[in-house]
Design a protein that fits this description.
- By secondary structure, the chain is α/β, with parallel strands linked by helices.
- The protein has one domain (13-200).
- The chain is 45% helix and 11% strand.
- It has 7 helices and 6 strands; from the N terminus they run αβαββαβααββαα.
- The longest helix has 17 residues, at 79-95.
- It binds guanosine-5'-diphosphate and magnesium ion.
Length: 211
């Protein structure tokens, strides 16, 4: 399988790495392509990719491998981490509700490449804006895509945390701070994302004649 490795001389963290990944993927993608992003720690089994691709092709912009969809689950996650993750997902569901979605924090997802191209054309450098805030970018991508009317779906997935060889790179304090910052930016009554981005996208779509 041909591989292209995007290399940073300095470790720039998940936010900047995923920004570069999505910009490159959208550059080389052809119409109809699906961009798959998964963790590199053996906990995300590639056997779920065909399911994700099929679901994207059936009419979704984003399909998430979901522990919480019927038939999904997780193996090897300790009680404390399972609780934190559940609480974080409930928080996200309350503050950033997306119909049909139960899994907000899993980074194993498929994206319709054309929707990513649209997001980058529309947001520019602000598609993934919260770069220094740990794993917040995983949620930010969903929210930014929701604000440009993306359609979301899930497929059941089993997280294999029992196969993880290394410690988690998530710094919970920084990521929690990131979620709080994002909640403020999104709901801020004076020009928050929720209202200002929707309005801007409406005008942008009209002037670009995009679907
Ligand atoms: N390139 C890059 N990828 C990162 C970095 N931090 C996290 N990741 C990716 O994000 C995934 C999530 O981190 P991980 O340690 O697996 O967290 P966990 O799944 O919450 O335990 C990793 O498997 C990597 O694929 C980083 O600094 N640089
Ligand atoms: Mg992981």
């Amino acid at each position: 399988m041909p591989l292209e490795i995007i290399h940073h001389r300095i470790n720039r963290g998940l936010g900047e790495s995923s920004r570069d990944l999505f910009e490159r993927a959208s550059e080389i993608a052809n119409p109809g392509d699906v961009v798959i992003r998964l963790d590199c720690d053996d906990t995300h089994e590639p056997e779920f990719i065909p399911l994700i691709v099929d679901k994207v092709r059936s009419g979704y912009d984003v399909v998430i491998a979901s522990r919480f969809a019927p038939g999904g689950g997780q193996v090897g996650v300790n009680g404390y981490r399972a609780f934190i993750s559940r609480a974080a997902n409930l928080f996200m569901k309350v503050f950033f509700p997306i119909a049909g979605l139960k899994e907000y924090s899993c980074g194993f997802r498929g994206y319709r490449a054309e929707k990513i191209k649209e997001a980058i054309a529309f947001y520019g450098n602000n598609f993934i804006q919260l770069k220094g805030l740990g794993f917040t970018c995983t949620l930010e991508k969903l929210v930014k895509l929701k604000l440009i009317n993306a359609r979301f779906g899930e497929v059941p997935f089993t997280l294999r945390y029992d196969q993880k060889q290394s410690a988690s790179k998530m710094v919970s304090s920084v990521t929690t701070l990131g979620y709080l910052v994002m909640t403020l930016l999104y709901h801020w009554p004076w020009g928050g994302w929720r209202t200002s981005i929707r309005r801007k996208h409406g005008n942008w779509t009209i002037s670009n004649d995009a679907p």
